[in-house]
Amino acid sequence: MDLRIEISEAPQEVDYQAILAPLREYNQAQTGLFGTEKLAILIKDDVGATQGGLYAKISGQWLFVELLVVPEAARGQGLGVKLMNMAETLARKKGCQGIWLDTFSFQAPDFYLRLGFSIFGELKDYPVVGYKRFFMQKRFDLNRDNPSNTQP
C-alpha cells in the first residue's frame, strides 16, 4: 500500500472519523474503557427555553466540564456553584475520580479555585498574547473529607 501525506484545509466529517476510529480502538484496547457519556444540567426560563447551564462528558473515570454558562442577568446568585455541585454529585454517583475542565484567564479561574480545583496545566498567550488557558482538576480522593481542599 502506497501512502502519501496531504493537507486539507476543508476536512470532511469522514476524514475526522477515519482518524478517530483507530485511535479509539487502540485506547479501548489499552484501558478497557468504552464510550463517552454526555450529560447536561440546564437553566431554563419560564417558557422552557435553555438560557444556560453545564454540559459535560464522562470518559473513563473523569467528568469533563465542556461548557458552563450562567445567564448574565442571573450571575452572582449562586447558580454557578449550584451547577458545579450538582455535576460533582452526579460524577461521584457514577464512580468518577474527579472533574476536569479548562478556562481562560479572562473567564473564571478564581471561581473554580474556590470550589477546590487546582491548576494542572497552563497555556500562555492563548487565545491571544496576554491571556492564558488554564487546565484544572478536582480529584475526589483529595477532597473526600474537605470539599474546599485546593491541594493539587
From TrEMBL:
Residue ranges of every copy of the N-acetyltransferase domain listed in the record: 1-141
The protein's name in its UniProt record: GNAT family N-acetyltransferase
Record keywords, A-Z: Transferase
CDD domains registered for this protein in UniProt: NAT_SF
SUPFAM superfamilies for this protein: Acyl-CoA N-acyltransferases (Nat)
GO molecular function, one term: acyltransferase activity, transferring groups other than amino-acyl groups
Stored InterPro entries: Acyl_CoA_acyltransferase (IPR016181), GNAT_dom (IPR000182)
Name of a matching Pfam family: Acetyltransf_1
